[in-house]
Design brief:
858 residues; 7-stranded mixed β-sheet
Length: 858
């Protein structure tokens, strides 16, 4: 206490006098009296004349800090390999963490840019009993719902109907196929969209009005003033441009290049004239009044459904509807809703990337800690000398923490550079325009500085406190008994390898499941099938002529149109196998409207009965093909189903049963399916080709379609569409692969550091063993077995963790692999091999050391 406040020039004299007086009083009276007198004298010096001046303290501290900074840089330059490993390891961890956090920030920022985003909600519904594509929730609602909300609910300030719209816009014989929205006039009241030109209150005064984004206006009109110009909409009547708005940001669920008045949609216009609703076709958004309670508003929905739902249309409706509301900020990460709007994220992946990035960063910090402890053997004498010449423990702690923060700061500089380099690659992988914008994201720089400080303190804390606790007498005698970090290092190393092995096992399981999905028999042939989305319905109306022309090309084998491709049949409805049966006998069944060549194009097997025939006219109106699962659901065998009739908007006859095929991803079980010959609601044309000279074949298809339609020619191979079903899983596998490699690399660096530490600790033991006749092989085995034991312990810890995590992940697939012992064995063997390679250098170096050098001080 006295040394902390007493002036430097008084220290020697005052301390000497007090100590002398202490011993005199102790000899004359007692220890207690001497202590009391000592305390009294010390407290008596708490006066201005004896207290150290703060100015001189700051000057001395500045010089000391500058000295620490200089020594830290010298140590980094002197220990180049150590510095490179430390800075490289930390920079990798920081890079992963920064990229992952930028991704998480982007995912959590969706739709928050809207004014009053906290009051913008959407309505979706749950139809209990109607499980479609694995969920009973649906995003679409009746067209009449917004006007009902506005009239019946004072809690709703404005409400609007929206639907996606892909349209061909034509200006001066130039065609632009664009993605947009169709919305009613209240859209701009709910979504406060800034107008660059035009008046939002007058933008939709007429049904034939259209609002363009700035980029599309420039694309169509160039430097012309777009306001008042006309563009042909869907190759039909002209629409007037009444407004120019800013392009929606990348983190918007509503992506569009134009917004057209929904009143121009004939179906919508007819629906809103009704007094009740019997459809679900539009998205409903509303602006909640200030101070209103969303839960209270939601409680009014059952009464509204009962009041406005068309009783005749829903007389035999077997499901129970529940309307729910959701704030717009939660839409992007909501993946369990059918027919949803916008690009979807994945809440689980956001959590997963956050956790894995944090784990990799912690592994990098642990790696630094291990290497710092290993290096501390060589710095023990430095610490001893500093303590002998008067350095306080707090000063030594500060010195080591300062070095750690310096290394973390240098790592951050390298990590920022790596982030700029790798972020575009990561953005393409995740299909997100993620970027570092220091101006727009004002918290980014302070967050990075805070991060580097925390990383420096965390990674340097243990070495700082261990080194500062060493006793200088023992250090300078060559005894390092105070360096007890090996136990901590062992724990940290086991944790590092447990994480790494867990990631290796997870990567193996993910890869094996994805390979299983790719190789499993699907029930259809996805090779050499070109799929063309139908934008112009005249192609379907004249399809037979187009098909005959295509078949003249020897490279084309067959063609057909369909509502849904075999990889993802989405349309469904209710049927019954008996006339006049009750609703309890109804079954939900998927359907696809097809052409006569559908089975031939996709190689689907017909088990019993016959295929659709152009020669049988009744096939168009009354003939169905069903799959095996549908026959079973209806209580028939495949053979017994042929000739049976079902109730589906009249009586339909089953003319054949096809073999089951996977009409969805492997996440879902095969469901009942019917195929019908019909041109209504066709979405795709599929062409089976030989696979020879594909560029010429595609050019031929493009030419023949261009002769019949102004819409741009688009195509995609069926196997490419199939791969898109598992895009998120493939992304997960790639990300896990990267994290796995990084975790193994960082864990190996930690093992390298511990090997250096342990071999340094056991130098004299190794020397004695060599003097007594131990061979190099004996020494290497001695040093290696401890590390392999730690890796084995890490393997035992990682196995149940990886098994549980992958078991949960595999539950998402209806068709999945079984985890087998070899997946865990491969991960364990790989960890042992990597650990052996990592420690072999240090073990060999220690075993070949001259024992004379290690025993010289004995």
């Amino acid at each position: 206490m006295l040394l902390r406040f007493l002036r430097t020039d008084l220290m020697e004299e005052v301390c000497g006098d007090l100590e002398e007086n202490f011993h005199v009083i102790r000899e004359r009276t007692s220890l207690f009296a001497a202590n009391c007198n000592y305390w009294y004298q010390v407290l008596n010096y708490l006066r201005p004349f004896a207290m150290r001046r703060s100015k001189s303290f700051r000057l001395n501290s500045y010089g000391m800090y500058r000295n620490y900074f200089r020594i830290s840089f010298r140590n980094l330059l002197r220990q180049k390999l150590y510095s490179a490993i430390n800075i490289g390891g930390l920079s990798l961890g920081l890079t992963c963490f920064i990229i992952a956090m930028l991704y998480v920030q982007h995912e959590l920022s969706y739709d928050l840019f809207y004014k009053n985003a906290d009051r913008i909600y959407r309505i979706y519904q749950r139809q209990i009993g109607n499980v479609h594509l694995g969920t009973d929730q649906f995003a679409v609602t009746p067209a009449l719902l917004p006007s009902v909300l506005h009239e019946e609910c004072p809690d709703v300030e404005y409400a609007t109907s929206i639907t996606n719209d892909f349209a061909l816009l034509t200006f001066d014989d130039h065609h632009f196929y664009e993605r947009g929205l169709a919305a009613d006039p209240n859209f701009f009241n709910v979504f406060a969209t800034p107008f660059l030109q035009g008046n939002p209150t007058r933008a939709f005064d007429d049904p034939a009005n259209i609002v363009l984004t700035a980029s599309l206006a420039e694309k169509i009109f160039g430097t012309k003033d777009p306001i008042g110009q006309f563009v042909n909409y869907q190759n039909g009547e002209p629409f007037t441009v009444t407004g120019i708005i800013a392009d929606p940001p990348s983190n918007s669920s509503l992506q569009y290049s134009f917004i057209v008045n929904l009143l121009s949609n004939t179906y919508y216009s007819e629906e809103i004239k009704k007094t009740t609703w019997n459809n679900n076709a539009f998205y409903t958004f509303f602006l909640l009044a200030e101070g209103a309670d969303p839960a209270q508003l939601q409680s009014k929905f059952p009464a509204l459904i009962k009041k406005y739902r068309d009783s005749e249309s829903y007389a035999s409706y077997p499901f129970k509807d529940h309307y729910r509301i959701q704030n717009i900020a939660g839409i992007h990460l909501e993946t369990g809703v059918n027919d949803d709007i916008g690009l979807k994220g994945n809440k689980q992946y956001v959590y997963l990337f956050s956790a894995v990035a944090l784990i990799v960063l912690l592994l990098a910090c642990v790696n630094y800690m291990n290497l710092a402890i290993a290096r501390s053997i060589k710095r023990a004498r430095e610490v001893g000398l500093r303590k002998v010449v008067g350095a306080l423990r707090s000063q030594i702690i500060f010195q080591f923490l300062g070095e750690s923060i310096l290394i973390a700061f240098l790592s951050l500089l390298l990590a920022v550079g790596l982030t700029h380099l790798l972020l575009p690659v990561f953005g393409r992988l995740m299909e997100r325009p993620i970027e570092i914008d220091y101006l727009a994201n004002r918290l980014l720089l302070p967050a990075l500085l805070l991060l580097v400080t925390l990383v420096g303190l965390l990674s340097g804390s243990y070495p700082a406190f261990v080194m500062s606790s060493l006793r200088p007498v023992e250090i300078l005698k060559g005894k390092n008994s105070g360096l007890t970090g090996s136990k901590v290092q062992r724990v940290l190393l086991v944790a590092q390898y447990a994480v790494a092995i867990t990631l290796v096992i997870s990567s193996i399981v993910i890869y094996t499941q994805l390979r299983f999905v790719q190789e499993k028999e699907l029930g259809y042939d996805r090779r050499n099938v070109i799929t063309i989305p139908v934008r112009d319905y005249s192609l379907v109306e004249g399809f037979e002529t187009l098909r005959i022309e295509w078949l003249k090309n020897p490279a084309i084998l067959e063609s057909s149109y369909c509502t849904s491709l075999p990889i993802n049949v989405t349309s469904s409805h209710i049927i019954n196998d008996e006339v006049g049966a009750g609703t309890e006998d109804d079954i939900a069944i998927y359907e696809s409207r097809v052409d006569y060549g559908f089975l031939d194009v996709f190689g689907i097997t017909l088990l019993t009965g016959r295929n659709f025939s152009r020669d049988v006219k009744s096939d168009v109106n009354s003939a169905y093909l069903i799959n095996e699962t549908a026959a079973k659901a209806l209580g028939w065998t495949p053979e017994g189903a042929v000739g049976k009739q079902i109730v589906d908007d009249g009586l339909k006859t089953i003319i054949g049963v096809i073999k089951d095929f996977h009409m969805h991803s492997m996440h879902l079980q095969i469901q009942p399916l019917i195929l019908k010959v019909n041109r209504a609601y066709v979405n795709y044309i599929a062409v089976k080709v030989t696979g020879e000279d594909l560029p010429e074949t595609i050019s031929f298809l493009k030419k023949t379609i261009a002769e019949r339609s102004p819409y741009p020619f688009e195509y995609q191979f069926l196997d490419e569409r199939f791969d898109q079903l598992y895009k998120s899983e493939m992304k997960l596998g790639e990300i896990f692969g990267v994290f796995t490699v990084l975790s193994i690399l960082i864990a190996s660096l930690g093992l390298f550091g511990l090997a250096a530490f342990m071999s340094g600790q056991r130098t004299k033991e190794i020397g004695i063993r060599k003097v007594l006749g131990a061979s190099i092989q004996n020494i290497m085995a001695l040093l290696t077995k401890d590390f392999l034991g730690m890796v084995s312990l890490a393997f035992l810890i990682s196995v149940p963790i990886a098994w549980f995590a992958m078991r949960v992940w595999l539950q998402e697939f209806a068709y999945r692999i079984n985890m087998e012992w070899w997946m865990f064995g491969v991960a364990g063997i790989l960890a042992v091999i990597i650990a052996g390679i990592t420690i072999s250098h240090q073990s060999l170096r220690a075993s070949m050391m001259d024992p004379v050098e290690s025993l010289r001080s004995e």
